[in-house]
Design goal:
2 domains, disordered N terminus, elongated, mainly alpha, three-stranded antiparallel beta sheet
C-alpha cells in the first residue's frame, strides 16, 4: 500500500492500495479533535452571547393600531425572553384581556394600564446594551415603545384625568349621602357625561393590546 502525505505534520493522509487500486483519505486524530473543539466553542459562544437566530417573524403594526408599516426580523433568545416578560404582564393584568365595563371598574383598569406602562418601560430599559446592537432586539424595543406612546398614552392623556376628576367627585357626593339610590361603581361610572366616547376609545385600545399580547405569544412559541 502506498501513502501520499499532505503537510509535514501529517494532518491529512491520502492512501492508495496498489493491489486493489483503492484510494482512501485519512485525517489525523488530533486535527479532527481540534476542529471539533473549535466548532463546539463557536456554538457555545453564539449561544451564550445572543442565542441562535430563529425563523423570520413579522408584525403588522396596522393590526395593533400603531402605524401602517411592518416589522420583519429574526428573533434571538433575548427577544423571546423580553416577549415572554411582556406577555406575562399582559396576561396577568386587566390589560391584555377583554374588558367588560358592565362589570369592570374604569379607575381600576387605568391603574392596571399605568402599571403596565411603568413595567414595560423598565423591561426595555433593562435590556443589556450589548443586546441592543442586534436589529431584532431593536425591533422589539421599538414596537414596545410605540405600543406605549401611540397606543396607551393618547388615551390616558385625553381621558384619564378627566374621568378620575369627575369620578372622585361623584363618589364623594354619594358617600356624603347626596344620592338616594344605591349605586355600585359600575353604575356611577356609566353616568360620566362622555361615557360612550370613553368606552369606545377604551375598547379600541384594549383590542390593540390583546393583539399585541397575541403577537408576543406567537413570538415566544414560533419565533
Amino acid at each position: 500500500m502506498g501513502e501520499l502525505e499532505s503537510g509535514a505534520t501529517n494532518i491529512i493522509a491520502l492512501t492508495w492500495d496498489k493491489d486493489s487500486w483503492d484510494i482512501g483519505l485519512v485525517a489525523n486524530f488530533e486535527f479532527a479533535a481540534t476542529l471539533l473543539a473549535v466548532v463546539l466553542a463557536g456554538v457555545v459562544f453564539r449561544w451564550w452571547f445572543g442565542g441562535f437566530s430563529f425563523s423570520k417573524f413579522e408584525i403588522d403594526q396596522a393590526e395593533l393600531g400603531i402605524g401602517d408599516s411592518k416589522l420583519s426580523f429574526r428573533p434571538n433568545l433575548t427577544d423571546r425572553q423580553v416577549a415572554y416578560a411582556i406577555w406575562v404582564e399582559l396576561s396577568t393584568r386587566k390589560i391584555g384581556l377583554p374588558i367588560d365595563l358592565e362589570h369592570d371598574v374604569i379607575s381600576e383598569i387605568y391603574d392596571s394600564w399605568y402599571t403596565f406602562f411603568s413595567v414595560t418601560r423598565e423591561l426595555v430599559k433593562g435590556i443589556p446594551v450589548s443586546k441592543v446592537q442586534r436589529a431584532s432586539t431593536r425591533a422589539i424595543i421599538r414596537l414596545s415603545i410605540e405600543v406605549l406612546n401611540e397606543g396607551l398614552r393618547p388615551h390616558l392623556t385625553h381621558w384619564q384625568a378627566r374621568f378620575r376628576h369627575w369620578y372622585d367627585r361623584e363618589l364623594k357626593k354619594y358617600d356624603e349621602g347626596e344620592g338616594k339610590e344605591v349605586l355600585d361603581p359600575q353604575n356611577i361610572q356609566s353616568r360620566f357625561p362622555q361615557y360612550e366616547q370613553l368606552k369606545q376609545d377604551m375598547q379600541r385600545v384594549n383590542n390593540s393590546l390583546i393583539r399585541y399580547r397575541q403577537k408576543m405569544n406567537d413570538l415566544i412559541r414560533n419565533g
